[in-house]
Fold this sequence. Notes:
The chain is an all-alpha fold. It has helices spanning 11-23, 34-50, 54-76, 82-116.
Amino acid sequence: MNEPVEQVSGPTELIRRQELVRSMGGDPEHSGSMTGAMHRGWIDLKSAITGKDDEAILNECERGEDAAKEAYQDAAKLSLPSNVADVIQQQAQAVLAAHNRIRSLRNAEGRSANSAS
């Protein structure tokens, strides 16, 4: 599993999202998801415990992407300004693509592990 998963966005998109958050009164540099931070910590811990087993790490990544998909589905139900709704929709599509890519990598890793046994 040496193949990287594509980034959801680059620096330009990050700046655009930060500006959008600020325009709505938010503080993107000092806010974020505690759940996301905890999940990243859990992946680090699980990596250490499992000896960086690729399939286990990919399973956990997919679980995190499932949570992100759910959060975007919830956000899409909100009454938001059209420029915000557009960003939410674009990000939701990127999260879905990342999820599907991670799932494909996990499935390939599982097949590889099974054929090596």
